[in-house]
Amino acid sequence: MLKPLTDYLLISDIDGTLVNTNKEVPQRNIDAIRRYQELGGRFTIATGRSPLSAVRIARKVGVNCPLVTNNGSILYDMEKGEVVRQRYLPDRFAEIVRRAAADFPHIGIQAYLDADIHMVVHNPVVEYQVAVEKVPFI
User: Fold this and answer.
1) How far apart (Å, rounded) are the C-alpha atoms in residues 10 and 30?
2) Average of pLDDT values for 79-96?
3) Which residues lie across from 10 on neighbouring strands?
4) 43: which residues sit within 8 A by CB, 6+ positions away?
5) How deeply is 68 buried, as exposed, middle or buried, from its count of CB atoms within 10 A (0-12, 13-18, 19+)?
């Protein structure tokens, strides 16, 4: 008999870890997560993605803890649909983004605020990412 895993939290990234190159979650990953949870383990996702994008994957695999999203700046409770905790960059970063956009007009820039994605500067790479993640942007 296996020892209960109630004292353990397993955290996984999404891209290149939980999902394959086709952006699909292999059934074997879903099965392994379920077996782990049946033994009392807690499982969640930590990702650079926005909460809305991460929730789609989290629902498929059965996350049972808040999600860590936006590169660690948001703790998101998907059951309540709300941000539990959020850390913001200092105000001086707005000027850094303005300078980067002026100095490098070919780059795309996204800004995350709460569960929203704001497109500061559009480009094909940013638009592709939004299409892959299937999330709305402002």
Assistant:
1) 13
2) 91
3) 43
4) 9, 10, 11, 12, 33, 36, 37, 61, 62, 63, 64, 65
5) buried
